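Prephenate dehydrogenase
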Amino acid sequence: MSNITVIGMGLMGGSLIKALKASGENYNIYAIDTNKENIESALKDGYIDKGSCNYDNIKEYIEWADIIMICTLPSIAIDIICKYKHLIDNKKILSDFCGVKTDIFNNTKDKKYIGLHTMAGKEKGGYQNSSETLFKNSNAIIVKNDNANENDIKIIEKLAYDIGSGKVITSTAKKHDEMIAFTSQLMHIIACGIVNHDNFLASLGFEGNSLADHTRVGTIDANMWSELFLYNSEYLYEELDKYIKCLEDFQNALNNKDREKLKNLMNNSNNIKNEWIIRKNTKNNIN
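Predicted C-alpha cells:
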C-alpha cells in the first residue's frame, strides 16, 4: 500500500488520481489544488481520501505520504520544491509529472527524486477533461537521481503501469529533454504552423485526412506549452533548426525543378520510416 500526495489536479493530476483509483491497487491519495471545485469533485467521486484547496496543510500531507507527486507547470513545481523540500525526508520519493526535467532535476539533488513523464495528453486541459484512461498504452519515461535505489525505481515503475502505461523506460534528464524537444514540442510547433498558414481556413472542402492528422494538436494550451517551450528552448531551437533545413531541401528542389532530388528525399523518408517501424516492433516484441 502506498500513500501518495498529489499536488495539482489539472488534466495530468486529475487523470492520475482517477487512474490510480481505477487500477484496483492499494493507493491512498491526498491532494492539494488551489481550485476548490476540483477538490470537492474528487472527494465526492471518491478519487481522493483527503483534499485541500490551499497549502495550509502541506506539512501534514507531506509527512503522511510515501510519494509526493507534483503535477503542475515546471515553474510552479520548482517553486513548491524550493519552498517545501525541507519537509521531505530521504525515506520519501519526490516525483513530478512535468514535461521537462532538467530544471526539476537540478533542484532535487539533495532528495530521493524519481520524475515521471507519460507521453499522453489532450488538446484541452483542466480537471474537467481528466480521464482514468488517459495514460492507457502510453510510453512513460522515468528520470531519477543517485539518491534513488532500485526498489524506489520499481515503485514508480509499478505506478506507471498501474495507471495504464504500456512501456516504461529510464533516461537522464538531459536525454529526456533533448528527445522531448523533437518527439513532442516540435510536433506542436509544426501543427501550429500549419494552422497559422494563410490557407488553413480556406481549406474546408479541399482537406483530406492528412490535414486533420497533422493539425490534431493545433488546438493547444498556450499558457502551458509556451512555458514548456521556454524551459527547453535550447534543445527545441536546435530541433526546429534541423527541421527548417529539411523543409529547405524540398524548397530548393522545387525551385530548381529537380525531380530526382525530390524522389531521393521521399525515398530516404520511406527507408527511414520503415527502419523506424522495424525497430519499434522489435522493441515491443522484446518487452
